[in-house]
């Protein structure tokens, strides 16, 4: 098992895509550190992982607060002394025409979708540069490649995330650190403020589809890196 005894930190791990990623990595033998703002969801995810024989610990944190991010990574250092995988999954989507989008909503998306990723990545790099190994997985979106009505604020954060990830990949690859960016299309989660029609749930992606894609990228030989992956519904109509 390639991931056996590795240490993986997954943000936004209490539900949706993050929870599926955490479960999937734990099944492969990773020690998974789960973090999000909602303690009850983290506890449920940890219980599920342990019921399957996996290993997990939880750290409640608001990633928009730098002090809490620092404490999160200090907990990783104390408990594991290393970090092999960081999955920057936490995100928020608020969809509205530009004329209706408030600055507070834009700031909220920017702080979670982009700023928190940069701060968390900087902390993770301190581990990985010393180890001269590691993987940073950034969960972006097809909205980071495609414009759509009502998505200007959200898309801007994901375009920025893809640009950040491409530059980061070039900076750290010589230290054997892989940067993998995943761009999912519509996923059946409670992620956004826009409700989905129940009839679409079987057509669009499920969280496990994204988790399996990330696992496939991580399981490549260390000499190989898939830097960007688009994943979308086969037939969403």
Order of helices and strands, N to C?
A: EHEHEHEHEHEHE
**How would a textbook summarize the main sheet?**
7 strands, parallel
Shape, per Cα inertia axes: globular
Question: Stretches where pLDDT falls below 50 for ≥5 residues?
Answer: none
Instruction: Tell me the distance between the termini.
Output: 38 Å
**Overall strand count:** 7
Strand order of the largest sheet: 3-2-1-4-5-6-7
CATH topology tier name: Rossmann fold
How much of the residues is beta strand, in percent?
15-25%
Helix content: 40-55%
Rg calculated over all Cα atoms: 17 Å
Helix/strand/pairing category: alpha/beta
Mean pLDDT across the residues is: 94
Label the CATH architecture: 3-Layer(aba) Sandwich
CATH level-4 homologous superfamily:
NAD(P)-binding Rossmann-like Domain
Q: What's the CATH class label?
A: Alpha Beta
Number of domains: 1
What is the number of helical segments per DSSP (H or I, 4+ residues)? 6
Short note summarizing the structure:
This protein is an alpha/beta fold and 237 residues long.
